[in-house]
Amino acid sequence: MTTPAIDATSADFARPDRDTIERLAKLPAANIGDAMDRLGVADSAIQAVWPGAKLAGPAFTVWTRPGDNKGIHAALQQVRPGDVIVVAGGGDESRALLGELIGERAINLGVAGFVLDGAARDAEALGEIGMPVFARATSPAGPYKDGPFRLGTAVAFGGVPVLPGDVIVGDSDGVVVIPREHAAAVAEAAEAVFADETNRRQAIVAARN
């Protein structure tokens, strides 16, 4: 039985408040992972495609056939400013799901970034325009554009379950996923982890001096 490829209500999910997202955005992904008992950390192969890329925002989920980006184009018609587009692409590394052109469109829409369980391309250009992209690999090979896909559904991303509205944080260590209903509590716990590590680091430096 064939199911619809696009759910018109897929953008109408609850998102955490902006203050909570901003608190999480200031914290290292490692501290957030520690605060969640090391759960919610995506496969370490998924990394920033350009140095210094960082992102934080609610997940807008895309489930797509490996190597196919028709769903990403559909997501760009529904995504809201500040969202992170999370693409469950089956871990395929043979074809890039997006590059500079989609990055430019996403900037115009206020997208916070992309995390791909798949490949990207135009890594240097994405860095030049400042669009954060985290991916499993880079490849010059372009994508298929045939579908099928689903938007706004639960997905498996790098070994972690992601629901629409969960908070995605990415930095130089990788990507973590914070369940939306626990986002404020995780922010508080991660801030405590960060403060504790800062104090211990200062004590170590003081002892050396």
TrEMBL record:
Biological process, per Gene Ontology: methylation
Classification via Pfam families: RraA-like (PF03737)
Binding site for Mg(2+): 122
UniProt keyword Methyltransferase present: yes
Alphabetical list of InterPro entries matching this protein: RraA/RraA-like, RraA/RraA-like_sf
GO molecular function, one term: oxaloacetate decarboxylase activity
Keywords linked to the UniProt accession: Magnesium, Metal-binding, Methyltransferase, Transferase
Domain of life: Bacteria
Cofactor list: a divalent metal cation; Mg(2+)
Catalytic function, reaction form: oxaloacetate + H(+) = pyruvate + CO2; 4-hydroxy-4-methyl-2-oxoglutarate = 2 pyruvate
Binding site for substrate: 99-102, 121
EC number: 4.1.1.112, 4.1.3.17
Quaternary structure note: Homotrimer.
Purpose of the protein: Catalyzes the aldol cleavage of 4-hydroxy-4-methyl-2-oxoglutarate (HMG) into 2 molecules of pyruvate. Also contains a secondary oxaloacetate (OAA) decarboxylase activity due to the common pyruvate enolate transition state formed following C-C bond cleavage in the retro-aldol and decarboxylation reactions.
Family: Belongs to the class II aldolase/RraA-like family.
Name listed for the protein in its UniProt record: Putative 4-hydroxy-4-methyl-2-oxoglutarate aldolase
Species this chain originates from: Pseudarthrobacter chlorophenolicus (strain ATCC 700700 / DSM 12829 / CIP 107037 / JCM 12360 / KCTC 9906 / NCIMB 13794 / A6) (Arthrobacter chlorophenolicus)
